[in-house]
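ARCHIVE CARD
Drawer: 12
Card no.: 0347
Subject: one protein chain, sequence and derived structure
Cross-reference: see card 0346
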Amino acid sequence: MKKRWIVGMMVLVMLAVVVVSAQARIKLVALPERGATIIRLDNPQATLIEEERVLTLQKGVNKVDFSWKGVSIDSDSIRLTVLSHPENVNLLNVSYPPNEAALVWEISSAAAFEEKVRISYLLRNIDRMITYKGVADKGEMKLDLKSHLILRNFSGEDFAKALVLLDYGEAFEQGIDHEETKQLLFLKADGTPIEKVWKFDAARLPWDPEKVSGNVGIPVTYKIENSEKSGLGKFALWGGKVRLYQDDGNGGTIFLGEDRATVDGKTAQIVPVGEKMEVYIGDSRDIVVTQRKMRDKKINIRRNNGNRVVLYDTDELITAKIENFKDKPAKLTMIQHIRGQWDMKKCNMDYKRKDASTLEFEIELPAKGKKELSMHYHRRNVR
């Protein structure tokens, strides 16, 4: 047996007492006695692994050598926590042998112990993806919603049994080997209320669809509120791809479309409790918007010494005729934009200012009915 005092391939060597002892090496990638293991997926950039091991410590100073060849571990993230006898067992230092995927812990033990420890580290190359599948009823009032976690392991590490945790929801026990992909159901909510909304954005859609060649429709979305009354609301939801179907009334389903979940029109990384997840399902001609600018006049004109116009205000009037050709009531979200400084002189509908230049109208339309929006405003200090 060779003696190694600094970077020895030894496990549980009592340096102060034992002169010659058997060599051993505990490999992180091949430890036979892995205890409770947790795979935490809180952060989409890296996966935190927490596992428990039992070390047989002798009285005195022990060296424990771990290696992780072929496993995508961030070496700076490895931590050792003593669990059984924290007052009598202390981690003295950690060293990294040169040119090796390994480290050596020096552990001081007041007596011989079977010591339970927790080893934690960040593991790369475990991919996760959230997907949703929803089936709407024929009347498009409720949705049976399921969500799956797709887990792909290319880290080099096998997990025969582990507790998988997102940053919300209940944990579930699962094993996953290197180069294996698993799809895990983690959310199921039947009868979730949905709100079907048409969305007209004046900056993106033509103001007079009859003058545009081709079929021009208004984007339609389903809105799903992440709340307890919707059968959700226990935790925030991750954003992900949503695939939607509709019951055809004859025992089958119709594919409506798929899209990534959005919140306020932006791709959602997460849908907080109380917010609404929006999913685009296609364009529709059931609602038609015809918008025109009825007035655009310069007022309060200011000139320089050379009589050139340098500044003025505008007096503008926009009208929009909105027609619902459906046999059912419908809801239209209308987005209008007014650039620069402005003040509203008269508007016949309530609106919400999303930012300095964006107005949002929520317009309830009766079945086979129509409404007209009128906005009279001044833009100030136009150059």
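Annotation on reverse: The CA atoms of residues 340 and 379 lie 7 Å apart. Residues 1-32 have pLDDT under 50 and may be disordered.
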